[in-house]
Amino acid sequence: EDPDRGFSFLIDAPLDMRFDQRTGLTAADVLNSWSADRLTKKIQEYGQERLAADIVREIIAVRQKQKITHTKQLTEAILLAYRKKLKSNREVPWIGGTHPATRTFQALRLIVNDELHELEAVLPQAVDMLAAGGRIAVISFHSLEDRIVKTFLKTAARGCVCPPELPVCICGHRPVLRLL
Questions:
Q1: Separation CA 81–CA 134 (nearest Å)
Q2: For the chain, first and last CA: distance in Å?
Q3: Over the stretch 116-170, which tens digit does the pLDDT of each residue have?
């Protein structure tokens, strides 16, 4: 909740976004060193941002002049991409819904903290910690997390995971959960 950590586009702060500030790349590192193609792909994938290519074009234009180090710089690049696409002169070019920077900030946070891989790693650990008859509940905040959780739970709740063309099971996989 520290506003100086760079998670919010509403407050100008250093672009960090790391949960653990002792390790890994910052959001500024990612924005200033990744290629346009890589940034576009990840903002599309992790942010599900339809204007990812336009946003990255503006990010590249900004970083050619100076390093992107603060949330305000990134937010302005995102808003400029939206203004151009929507042919709008409004300061914040959208009506209702989520702020245009939301999806890009989400993508960067997921990248910096490797959140999807962390989720994949913690789910089996959570199941291993369950007592017999225990229950596990997972709250996901967007479809990428939701898909990972549902796939894991479905796999953990079924038996054999061998390819259907095999005549007999060779994997020995046993269900460890029962879906309620």
A1: 49
A2: 34
A3: 999 999 999 999 999 999 999 999 988 999 999 999 999 999 988 889 899 999 9
What pTM does this model have? Answer: 0.87
Q: Give residue-wise pLDDT tens across range 42-98.
A: 999 999 999 999 999 999 999 999 999 999 999 999 999 999 999 988 888 877 788
Q: Could you tell me if 51 and 103 are in contact, meaning their C-beta atoms sit under 8 angstroms apart?
A: no
Apex 50 CA angle, 116 and 36, nearest 5: 75
Render 45-88 in DSSP notation, one character per residue: HHH--TTHHHHHHHHHHHHHHS---BHHHHHHHHHHHHHHHHT-
d(CA 83, CA 94): 9
Which residue has tokens 């920077």?
A: 101
Map residue 161 onto helix, strand or coil: coil
Handedness of CA 134, 140, 144, 147 (dihedral sign): positive
CB count, 10 Å around CB of 155? 14
